# Entry
Amino acid sequence: MKLLLRFLPEMIKSPLISEIILETGAKLNINKANVAPSGGEIVIDIPPDKVEDVIRAFKVRDVKVIVLEHPVIRDDERCVNCGACISICPVDVFEFGEDWSVDSNVDKCVRCGACVYGCPLCALSLGEEDV
Amino acid sequence: MTEKTIQEINSKIRDGSVCVVTADRMSEIVEEIGPEDAVKEVDVVTTGTFGAMCSSGVWMNFGHSDPPIKMQKVWLNDVEAYTGVAAVDAFIGATQISETEGMKYGGAHVIEDLVRGKIINLRSTSHGTDCYPKRSINTEITIDDLNQATMLNPRNAYQKYNVATNSSDKTIYTYMGTLLPRKGNATYSGAGDLSPLSNDPTYETIGMGTRIFLCGTQGHIIGEGTQHAPGANFGTIMVRGDLKDMSPEFLRAAILYRYGITLYVGIGIPIPILNEKLALSTAIKDSDISTSVLDYSIPRRSRPTIKTVTYADLKSGLIEIDGKEVKTSPISSYHVAKKIADTLKRWIEKGEFMLNLPAERLPPDTQVKPLRQTRELPLVKDVMLTNVTTIEQGSEVEEAAKRIIKGEFTHLPVVSKDDKLVGIVTAWDISKAVASKDKTLDEIMTKKVVTSDIDEPVEISAAKVEKHNISALPVIDKERKVVGILTSDDITKLVAKRRVK
# Structure
């Protein structure tokens, strides 16, 4: 499962991720990390059996945790299945299905956002759900 | 030789015995039974395409207000329409950008919103005349309030199109979509085997008056499109249809990020299979249609062809460029193109769509001329300084400082032993090096140098200077040897001189 973590600037200095790996024993995969003066944003992938432990560990440390069940959302009404997203996506989320409609495998998504701007029909957006 | 007439086909449409196939199936049929039997079996082949067609728009007649106004400027949802015609006629072009929302909304969105029956704000100004005294108007309308809403697209349905890639090291944003750096992807447009004009490439049955599928309703071809270039298999058509009958399923506003607004237009042309020549031409396969991969990072009219590929290569999802596999994306929709060909097939089978022969065929031999530019276009070689002082890589910072002072310039290109450009240092870099002491020339120089070449128009170099916020460009030849330098001062002087003229 993918989580989006948002943390305040003062947390940037502490080795948060390492602490949580040691504490929970979960093998985290960092998909994306952004650090700015206003704070940071990290997208991580966690094994299903450690989801609860990891979420709890981050929350204790005042990190905002967002579960990315739908990392990228497609508006099927707007989409015309052109496929412009296919070659822009760095992790091959999109591919053509049988009748030249575009299939998406959102589990691979790392929320880079390239497709959001690359879609001529403005049919794609990055989803967010709080826990 | 088996031949058929349009009248024979239309009577079959009327009695329900017509045989219609979509163009993607025709190659199998002709392979299986041969062209002669294909003419006997198949009456009509339907085609389809759905993609970005910028050269599109709608003529509208608003009706007269009371007191009446001669509209001289008109905006629909803040998108300007052209009114250089009679009092209440206007043309809204697909690519026109909103004056308040910029590239988020444009003419194409107005057109889609009209089709969806949405309320549109209409604003107009005028100088006022004796017969049209009103000077401004601001009102809300829908498509039902318009006397006419006639789609009239000057150039649609390109027979085929070039493939776009980008060899530079930055992402570029084009009318072919987002192109990733270092040939990171390639984009293409066109339906290949379903492409209307590719299925009748000599325009035997396509021309002025041909009834077609246009955005979900029946429209017509009214002639060749602008830039129609049949010799190079780049034919185009001009089309007309009633916007009031169109469907948003086959007409969509789109935004090409950082490029602009466009309209996705759906077109399907029925090809009557009158003879073997048409049976063979409609049997065209993706692998029969070749096109060129062009480097869109070259900001010139003639972009170099990197290689030739077919639509079969493009549709496989990967093409090979310089030994590297490059992912491909269409920006047109084959899925919707097929839906159009299927819909047209159904209309004909149900007797709702009759075929006709054109009043005039499309011209088979027109060519596209470039724009005649009567004012001189200065090139870098006309403006650059040629006696450039350079410094060899590995030299002392002090030596660089001496050369800058002696030459009274601020930019010093750094070259390798074999004289190739490897970096650039400025007087500012040297001041920084002096301030921080113990830095070498190699450490302080800028290694990613923005350069220019002698045949580049100064306009392009000026854009580079502005984009990268720099003040000089070394001019290099094919071997990366420095042959000159172009400074922002040179550019400013040139612009000033041209203004005086």
